[in-house]
Amino acid sequence: MTISVAIGCRKGGVGKSALSASLASYFAREGKDVLLIDLDPQGNVTFGLGGEPGSVGAAEFLKGEKVAPTILHPNISILAGGPELNSVEVSSLEPEALRDLIADHQLNPDVMIIDLPPYSEHLERLGLVAADHALIPVVAHPFAISGAARIAGLIEARQQRSRPGPQRYALVQSMIDLRRTLDRTLQESLKELFPGIPTFGFRQDISVAYSLTEQLPLHVFDNRARVFPELEEIGAWLNGR
Ligand SMILES: Nc1ncnc2c1ncn2[C@@H]1O[C@H](COP(=O)(O)OP(=O)(O)O)[C@@H](O)[C@H]1O
Ligand SMILES: [Mg+2]
Questions:
Q1: What is the pLDDT of residues 70-118, one digit of tens each?
Q2: Most buried one in 60, 76, 153, 185, CB count within 10 A?
Q3: Distance from C-alpha of 196 to C-alpha of 39, rounded to nearest angstrom
């Protein structure tokens, strides 16, 4: 059974792509076969893992072309993101199109991670609907919190109507720096704003940032990065533990 997770939060710069790449690295390090789907027209996670944004990938897959994911590392392959995701053909797809295509192509990696874009609600919905879990990174910024609430609302509306999409979601307090007072109080606020929703932490770590600029999976760049224990907690939740 594939574990599928979409990572999104309307707002840009909250660490969606960094979390997608790091989680891919965590599972690859555990020996799992990971497929990333980059739904961001900017292709940040594609670039950060050593791929080429704009190469044949997610957009062509969505248009129904027969494309194989690009292998970036022994356990990590990707459907690359790129500007073609903004094309008219992609923007006219039904919300369940990606989910159906994944089933049709019998893509069944151990773990599938879908990195959602900040500005396109359409692409965001395509990605969310295709996943059984969602992770919503948030930082101490009002737009990040309102963006998280909108995604949570969309997920819950689909659950209530028994439509395909995430059965469970969690928040990830992203880029935590405990020297910042706001970061220390955010966790409490999130518990109040999202009662009953699990909240994980993902600290600010220079290895996370450098691994992306060096275009290497985190475990290849720094196998002992300080975020691995946090990624392990998220991994356990995704595994239903
Ligand atoms: N946990 C982290 N530690 C250090 N830097 C991070 C972390 N998460 C994100 N960053 C950096 O912050 C910037 C924005 O993150 P990114 O993942 O691209 O955001 P988004 O995908 O939400 O737009 C990037 O330069 C990234 O390297
Ligand atoms: Mg991003």
A1: 999 999 999 999 999 999 999 999 999 999 999 999 899 999 999 999 9
A2: 76
A3: 29
Instruction: Supply the range of the domain harboring residue 144.
Output: 3-238
200 lines ligand 1 (CB under 6 A): no
Report d(CA 112, CA 237) in Å as an integer.
Answer: 15
Alpha-carbon 129 to chain mean position:
13
Domain with 75 in it: what CATH number? 3.40.50.300
Binding site membership of 42 for ligand 1 (Cβ less than 6 Å): no
CB 200 within 8 A of CB 13: no
Pocket test for ligand 1, best of 10, 14, 124 (most atoms within 8 A of CB): 14
Q: Tell me which residue has its CA closest to atom 17 in ligand 1.
A: 15
Please count the structural domains in the chain: 1
Is the CB of residue 230 below 6 angstroms from any atom belonging to ligand 1?
A: no
pTM: predicted TM-score of the whole model, two decimal places: 0.97
Asked whether the beta carbons of 10 and 150 are under 8 A apart, the reply is yes
Terminal Cα-to-Cα distance of the chain (whole angstroms) = 15
Q: Which of 40, 207, 212 should be mutated for ligand 1, with most atoms under 8 A from CB? A: 212
